[in-house]
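Researcher: Next entry in the queue.
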Amino acid sequence: MSTTEHSAPLIGIPVRLSDGDAPGADQRIVEANRIFDDVVELIRAAGAEPVLIHPSADGNSLESQLSGCRGIVVPGGGDVDPALYGADPEHPSLYDVNPAQDVLDIAVVRYALANRLPYLGICRGMQLLNVLRGGTLHIDLPETSVAHNPVDGEEWTVHDATLTADSAVAEVFGTERIPVSSGHHQAVDRVGEGLRVTARADDGCVEAIEAYPAPGASESTAWTVGVQWHPEAFVPSPELRLPLFRALLQQVHDEPLEGVRA
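Model: Structure for this entry, 262 residues:
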């Protein structure tokens, strides 16, 4: 699929593989599938065309699906397999650990990094970026003064995040403090190589990470941002939904499409 066939740049987004329609499905899976659709619509609203990336099948490889993409978004979903970062695979807090989803999402993240494509990771998408760079996760956050996981049937919990002054996220929002919507029980612990923390909640929880060029690197680093919050949520403000997606698209428009690597 060529970008010349579309008036809008193509943004790859890996599909969610867990079945939210199955009898007795975990409500969190149902919600993850619903907000996936919201993310797809925000990609369109920002001026791009989403390309839904599926596991390789029927000769349609991941590389062929991704070949025309100018950027990548990896959305939220179930927990990353703890084996990928050396944690307890039997921890009682885990939910929807899906090896097939890990394989798909990891391949897409690696493609973005290898080809220096602008990348936005949301919640799970941020955590996977950190794990692939050798970082670890808090497998289950302790209770603090800041609620990160909604309770009593609430869809989201809202709290403030402080953004680092010289960061991409601070540039996107034009401020160093914003309210964000959260729905997670895990978060970045040890930060992966080549990444830096650029936002935190008031309890210290990592809310954003970004890639930075390694000293002496011969190649530039693409705009690579992970946020722990869910920008697709309509709370705390609809105006906060689009800026990250528009920023991703701005990077796409600023960078020519070069030869890609699998």
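Model: DSSP finds six helices and eleven strands in the chain.
Researcher: Noted, moving on.
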